[in-house]
Amino acid sequence: MVNRFEIINKKEMPNGQIKAAIFDFDGTFSTLRCGWETVMQPLMLEMISGSSAEKADSELVKEVNDYIDSSTGIQTIYQMQWLRKRVDIAGKGNPERDEWWYKAEYNRRLMLKIQGRINALKSGKAKPEDYLIKGCIEFITQLKNKGVELFLASGTDHKDVLNESNALGADKYFSLIKGAPENMAACSKEAVIRMILEEKKIKGSELLVVGDGKVEIALGKAANGFALGAATDENNLCGLNPVKYKRLVNAGADAVTGDFTPIDEIMQWLGF
Length: 272
Hints:
alpha/beta
C-alpha cells in the first residue's frame, strides 16, 4: 500500500484523452459531513432494535456497519429504504414510519452535527481549507486549464450540496452540480454520467470519475471511463485511509490517491 498515489490498472491509461471529470462531493472533496457514519449507525441500531443503540447486540452492530460501508456514495434515501425493510423484519418499528421519515430524522440529527461548521465558514470564523481535502482545488484548476469540463455529483440532497459547495467556494469550478432530487429516489451520479455520454457526446474513454465510494467507481467503470479512487483521511485532510483504499481497489479503481497533493503524478497518469 502507498501513502499517496498509486496506479492500479497499468494496462489501460487515459493518455491525455479526458474531456470530462465527475467528482463526488462528501469525503472526496468536502469534509463538512465528516462523521456522518457516527450519526447513521446509532439511528439504524436504535430503529432496528427498538431500544438504545448502546444495547444493540454485536451481530446487529456488524450488520449495520457492513451495510454502511458497502453503501457509501449512494443516495441517502436508498440507505433509508434498507433501514425501513430491516426495521420491518425486526418487527419493532412504527408502521407509520417510511423511508422518507427515516431520511428526515437522519438529516435532522446530522445537521445538528455539521450546521456549526457551515455557519463558521459563512461568518468567516473558519476557512474553506479547513474542510477541503488537500490539493483538491489545485487539482481541479489544473484540469480546467487542460480543457476538462468538471461536474459535481452527490448522493446528498441537492439544496445541501449547493449550499455547502458555495460555503467552501468550490461551486464556481463546476459546469453542473447535481445532488439527490427532492422527494425522489434517483441516482444523481448515474444521471450525470448518462448526460455526459448522451448529450455531450463524450466517449466513456474520455470520462474521469473521482470519488471515495465504490458506487461512483463502479458507475464510472460501467461507462468504460477511468476511475480515480480518493482514499481520503477526512480527519487530517491528507494522507491515505486504508479502509477506503481496500474498498476502492476492490471496486475497480484504475488509480488511488490519499489526497490531491501529488498533482504532478496524477496529471502524468492522466497524460497531461
